[in-house]
Design a protein that fits this description.
613 residues; alpha+beta; 20-stranded antiparallel beta sheet; 20 strands; elongated
């Protein structure tokens, strides 16, 4: 029974965290955006982070109350996302069995909905206006301590919500106990409660925390807790603490953290120690600083590794693995301007040399396919750099060394960057057009290799394919080699200034050649949408997804197949609406100054105008 109660409490914690994160897709503080000017290139921390305690090792924070964010939310909801979000929440709660959430999680989500703490309409202000969650590790207390703080929007009473939560916990056999907390500034006291979590329940739900052949997990956890000055107030148990003050709500794994979180006088020392660390500065200096900052997170990976290596040295074999972690820290941010911009960075250290294939992939001077060579009609485009490609080839050879592997990789010897995309196949083709761009310094040799490998009657891959002999024709003033299959799908290949372009349909290859010659390319489309895709160079990878173009492509494909399917479309109208509402999305990855960064940008689909009746 105690295990069931503990499991519900863990479900409550995990689901509550998910609810708060989900609300980033539909939420709404001050005109202070929390961002420095674009000229500095460095993100200023969100104001709520001044509440961080000292010895914080990681945090997640949000602030949804800027004008730009509210404007963006209206666009986002108008593009059809509101319906998608609301239906997703409903499905989470109502779906039966394995199709939905576990029953405990469903109860938690339903409680959030009933209490007005989860708004399923993303165009409306969301309950958790600003807040943060964090992990702290004290020098005299080896186990991590966790905390959560949030300011609720006007109209929501945090004290009433805590009372309702207390009632929910009591209905599950848990026993919240009233407790008065003294704020750290000594100004006042606030009422709340504590929830005892028995030690043997913790051991039951976390048996893998320590190896079975060393010390019993229950005894080890109990010894650590009892030996600490921050040990639980009741012997043999951990506690969770919760309290509210004004519009603020605090939940933590230690009583003193509640007093710090809800205090009106914040020193900011916890935040200061983070932002002054070299690894944070290295990451923040490269982060995207455009627009209003609404979401950020940070994790000091190296300090966590050092602490747990020291703490677990006597209880865990291989604890020296922490010394080989090649990452110092992780930092990410999301901001809003005319679009949704995200940035995630990993700061690497000298231990990267212990992973030669990864180091080669990140540090080899290279780039992806230039987007000026990609047609603007593309609905999807993915590209990887030659550094990544070379590392993948090395990994393949090392994982399965054999003459056959060497032979299969031989056609790639002249290939640098690779790009793969989808466009319309044209009226003469039943299928969408798939194209491949192969960067090469020896395009003529690469094209010859390609034709030889895909020739019918040869000993390459083409020997098993029903393809016609290769022929040539002129297309847009360029000589094109082509081969066809009985289904009408073929291969059309041409040498370009960049390398070799290959497509499954003539019209698709025509689009490729036209984009390079006219400048009417994917690069121009992204520039028109104010998507920063052209700088800096040296990208490791690129991903582009255009929801409206994908929807049009699927509609056209289903229309072509109508005579075979009897009008029974495999993609339902509501699924097409979801694809349409995905908007324009772009991501790329870079490695500069020992920082691996992933940039992302989302431009919502413009709201569709209802026709006048």
């Amino acid at each position: 029974m105690r295990l069931l109660r503990t499991r519900f409490l863990l479900r409550l914690a995990v689901t509550s965290a998910a609810v708060v994160l989900i609300s980033v897709t539909g939420c709404s503080k001050k005109e202070d955006s929390g961002v420095t000017s674009a000229s500095t290139g460095e993100i200023a921390p969100l104001p709520v982070l001044k509440r961080l305690p000292e010895e914080t090792y990681g945090y997640l924070a949000w602030d949804y109350d800027s004008d730009k964010f509210r404007q963006f939310q209206k666009r986002w909801a108008g593009a059809g996302k509101g319906k998608t979000f609301a239906s997703t929440i409903e499905e989470l709660v109502t779906a039966p069995g394995d199709a939905g959430l576990p029953n405990e999680a469903k109860e938690v989500v339903k409680w959030f909905l009933d209490e007005g703490l989860l708004e399923s309409d993303p165009s409306k202000p969301q309950p958790f206006r600003e807040g943060m969650a964090f992990v702290q590790i004290l020098k005299d207390f080896p186990l991590p301590r966790f905390g959560f703080f949030s300011s609720l929007r006007d109209g929501l009473d945090p004290k009433a919500k805590l009372q309702s939560l207390k009632t929910l916990l009591e209905s599950k056999g848990l026993h919240p106990q009233p407790l008065t907390f003294t704020l750290s500034d000594g100004s006042t006291s606030v009422e709340g409660f504590q929830i005892p979590l028995p030690m043997n329940d913790v051991g039951s739900v976390q048996p893998a925390a320590y190896p079975q052949d060393s010390t019993d997990s229950n005894d080890l956890l109990q010894n650590v807790a009892d030996s600490s000055p921050q040990a639980p107030t009741a012997a043999g148990s951990f506690h969770l603490f919760a309290a509210a003050s004004g519009q603020s709500l605090g939940i933590a794994s230690a009583e003193d953290l509640i007093g710090q979180l809800l205090s009106g006088n914040q020193s900011g020392n916890g935040l200061k120690s983070i932002v002054e660390s070299p690894s944070y500065k290295k990451l923040a200096a490269q982060a995207n600083s455009n627009g209003d900052l609404v979401f950020s997170y940070y994790l000091d990976v190296k300090r966590i590794g050092d602490r747990f290596r020291q703490q677990l040295a006597e209880n865990m074999e291989g604890s020296d693995l922490a010394q080989k972690i090649p990452v110092d820290s992780l930092f990410g941010s999301t901001s809003v301007d005319n679009s949704f911009l995200s940035w995630t960075g990993l700061a690497f250290n000298d231990q990267l040399g212990q992973f030669p294939i990864l180091r080669k992939a990140l540090t080899t001077p290279s780039d992806t396919v230039n987007l000026t060579n990609v047609p603007k009609e593309a609905s999807i485009f993915i590209s990887i750099s030659d550094g990544i490609l070379e590392s993948l080839k090395t990994l393949a050879k090392e994982s399965a060394p054999s003459p056959d592997m060497d032979k299969s990789l031989e056609p790639l010897k002249n290939v640098k960057a690779v790009g793969l995309g989808v466009v319309s196949g044209g009226s003469a083709s039943l299928f969408p057009g798939v194209f491949v761009l192969l960067g090469s310094d020896a395009p003529a040799e690469l094209l010859t290799q390609l034709k030889t490998n895909l020739s019918p009657g040869g000993d390459g891959a083409g020997a098993q394919l029903p393809l016609s002999p290769w022929a040539t024709k002129q297309l847009n003033g360029v000589e094109v080699s082509y081969t066809l299959s009985p289904l009408g799908v073929g291969l059309f290949a041409a040498q370009t200034d960049y390398g070799v372009a290959v497509a499954t349909a003539e019209e698709a290859l025509s689009s490729l050649l036209g984009s390079s010659n006219s400048g009417d390319s994917l690069q121009k489309l992204l520039s028109d949408q104010r998507i920063a895709s052209n700088a800096p160079s040296g990208k490791l990878g690129v991903v582009y997804v255009n929801g409206p173009k994908m929807a049009d492509l699927v509609k056209g494909f289903q229309g072509n197949l109508a005579m075979f399917t009897g009008g029974q479309n495999p993609v339902a109208p509501d699924q097409l609406d979801q694809i349409q509402s995905a908007g324009i999305n772009y991501w790329d990855s870079l490695f500069q100054s020992d920082v691996l960064s992933l940039r992302g940008q989302h431009v919502p689909t413009e709201p569709q105008q209802n026709p006048k009746g």
